[in-house]
Amino acid sequence: MSEQAEVNIGLVGHVDHGKTTIVKALTGVWTDTHSEELKRGITIRLGYADVEFRRCESCGKYTVSEMCGKCNHKTKSVRRVAFVDAPGHETLMTVMISGAAIMDGALLVIAANEHCPQPQTYEHLMALDIVGVKNIVIVQNKVDLVTKEEAMKNYKEIKAFVKGTIAENAPIIPVAAHHGLNIDALIEAIEEYIPTPKRDEKKPARMFVARSFDVNKPGTPIEKLNGGVVGGSLIQGKLKIGDEIEIRPGISRDNKWMTIKTKVTGLSTCGKNVKEARPGGLIGVATSLDPALTKTDMLVGSIVGATGTLPPVLAELTLDVTLMERAVGVEKVDPLRIGEPIVISAGTATTLGTVTSAKPVKVSLKRPVCAEKGWNVAISRRVGNRWRLIGYGKII
Fold it and tell me: By residue range, what is the domain housing residue 335?
């Protein structure tokens, strides 16, 4: 069995519909670990967990256990899967979009005890469409809290909601994650509808950075400091210990952005240290960087890659814009206006921009992004006191 996960699956949907509980039911890991998340009971940062899916050689039941709970026969390893738990709160939409950049498929979680769609159910599905996540399984959670008739009514609401969208043909799996009910059926649906994508490991290494941090404890002597760590997922190529890499857009010095160059000093995935990392799953890359450059997610939104192979750093984007007909909080999405502030999400990067031209649409960015022509970027507009997803633009 591979020691690295083969596929990244996101959990998306409205706040408090049970995404983190589903990850716990699948992996045994509670991904809300930050103090503010535990205090407020919601996901704030992207959470990660991985697990090995297994299948009973006798009855065919899917599980994560070495022995089948149905017939007590041995199970065989099928695939290692990494889960990305995205926040569902309306104020954290940009975090969800940045997480979607490293997802190969998604579980759209919808609570059976609430009307469908809720605001972020709609926004998250649109975000998946924008970033190109097409392989989706719908999880109808909390069926233990409703009657059979109420569950069927909610099921029909879900079918009506996804009609005409990328999730129209997605399976709908009823579960009670809190009790572990129907998790075997959910795993089976994941195996059938979210395949491992084909990866090109011969291309130069390229990784979207979703986390960065300083692993040193306060007070560590200078001579014993470990270099900064960046975390994310390779979308192509391989990384090996000793590789020379660069990080863009890098750091700002005297109002200029400078590419960071460093060396890979360690690699970890699924809780294990490895000598080589491939696409699929989430990896931590230890570097020789000053840890002050990576602490508290300072490099989130950057791209890591083989030296001399990364896309350019862009402070202005020219976009072919497609706006949604409606968005949360507005009945009709109006065209972008010159001078309007907007939020641009490109890969795992999120930055504030100002519209400088309407035809073609040009956006001046407060913080540049590493991106190239042909990429889709998500566009959010301020509606009231919230940033709402209104469409996307293709870089031209």
Answer: 313-395
